[in-house]
Each structure stands twice: as structure tokens, then as C-alpha cells.
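hiii, so i know i said id send this last week but things got crazy w the move. better late than never?? heres the sequnce for the chain we talked about at the cafe, plus the structure i predicted for it. fair warning i was half asleep when i ran it
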Amino acid sequence: MSSAMPDTARARSHARMPGLPLRVGTRGSPLAVTQTRMFLEALMRVCPVLRDLNAFEEHQIITTGDTVQNRALAEIGGKGLFAKEIHEALLDGRIDFAVHSLKDLETELPAGIILACTMTREDARDALILPEGGADADNPFAAIPKGAVVGSASLRRQAQILAARPDLRVVNFRGNVGGRIAKVRAGDVGASFLALAGLRRLGLEAEAAAVIAPGAMLPAAGQGIVGVTVRAANVELAEMLSAIEDPVAAAVSRAERALLAALDGNCRTPIGGYAELRDGRLQLEGLTARADGSFLLRRRIEGAAGDAVALGLALGAELRRDSPADIFG
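okay and structure toks below
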């Protein structure tokens, strides 16, 4: 996690401290709370006076995405349902800023809300979860028994596993990280997938039977990145929060979110997007697919990190042009 803070930014954050205590909004899941406290620790490392002042109040907010567990996200309004009530609390002034898994944030935030900063990305890869035993990292899908039922709420994961293993059947599988692991262990399904980043942050990395390379399963846009939102009008707070912006995470997330925007991505469309910075160059790979795995298209683009948004928009336009129109319906 980056702790570097330019002297000018440090000086501004001390000279223009927002009113305290600052009320931080988060979902109430163990992962969301862990990520929120991780962010606050990072902020207090670069601005130690905040620790001395007991500067934060944590507000756990129940979202529609958390309460409705028996239906696919696409049926109830998409991934924005993990943020809707948090956005409302922010706009109503009940909280001052909010901490999110970036992949749960819509590409177009409500008017009056901005993304203030992104934290250093954790490993963005997906992990295979099995009832028992491990899997070959070079061929992880081979460990799933023939004809098995796979649990996943992600159409992106569903499309990619069915493209590789059309013999499998995928069922909707919702819940927090611990709950989904428990269901797999109980034999409710023959396999599932979770983000490695979440497992690591919860100290559950050992639960992964294998970590899946992006070449086998392209991650979701924003996966492994924590993003912080604030009211656009709260300039002083936005400035303070931006002090721990990770420049690499900022660049790759701009590219990935621009890709989603170009594709008008939602929970009804299987889309993957993963960017990396290598030797100062930004490499972005995108994926579109049918949920049943019968169509899957991957494309890559490369360019300067400063052109992250333009690269994402260009790759998104290319994928949309070369994909069947029905997958965006």
C-alpha cells in the first residue's frame, strides 16, 4: 500500500482539515468493513493527527444488493445495488465519504458524487474454490468434476467457465465470502470462484484451490481495487483523501472503467477488463461474451498511461463493433 504523500499535499491536508469526526460509510460485510478499516489506517499513516483525534465514525449501511440474496443481480437492478443506499447517505449528508470495492461501483456515479481516490491494487485474479483438495494452477478447470454444478453470481465468470467447460452447469450463488466458502465446503455446489483480493484481505487465501491466470479467466474491471467516494462539493475532504491515491491503480482503473463505459456494461452483459502498467506502458485487455459461453471475444490494446481513458474507450468500441448485438441487450 502506498504511503508516500507529496509535501505539498501533506501541508494542504493539515492546513485545511475538514470538520471532525468524519463519518465513513461502508457495507456491513466482513470484507467491506475490513477494506474500510484498511483505508482508514492508510489515511492515518499519512496524516497521523487523525489517529490522535479519533477522527472517524464508521457507519455500516445495508444495501439492496446485500438484502436480496435469492435472485441474480441482473434481475434486481445490477451491481449498483451494492452502492445505491450508500450514495443516498452521502448525498443526504449522513456520511462524509464512503469506501467501496471499485468493481461494485457504477461507471457513471450519481450527480454530486466523485471518486476521490483509489488504493493500491491487490492481486486482481480469480480463485477457484473446491469442496476439498487443490487444483493444477496450469489447468485449474480440470479439477472440476465432469457435469458438476458451479455456483457463481457473475456472468463474466459463468461465460468464461462455460466456454472452457461446456459440460458444467452454473447456478446463481450469492452471499459474502465466508458464506460462499461454507456452501462449497458443504457440497451445495461442486465449485465456485472468488476474487483472490478478498480472500487475501480476510486472511483466507488458503481456501483457494488454485489461483486462475488472467489468460484463463479475465478479471472484472476494478477487481482488487478499493475506491473512495465523496461529495463533489466537499473540496477539502476530497483533497485530503486524494493524498493516498495510488497512481498505478488510478491509471488502470481509469482504463478499465472507460472500457465498461464504452460497452455500457452492466450485470446483464459478461464483460472482463484488466489493465497493467509495464515499463511505463499501459496494457489493457477486454472481453465480451454470451452468458452461456457460446461466444467469447478477447482483445488487447496498449499505449501511454496518460491515455488510459482513451485506450479504454477505443478498446470498448472495438469489442462492441465485433460482438453480436444481442449480448448487449
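btw The longest helix spans residues 30-46. thought thatd interest u
miss u guys!!
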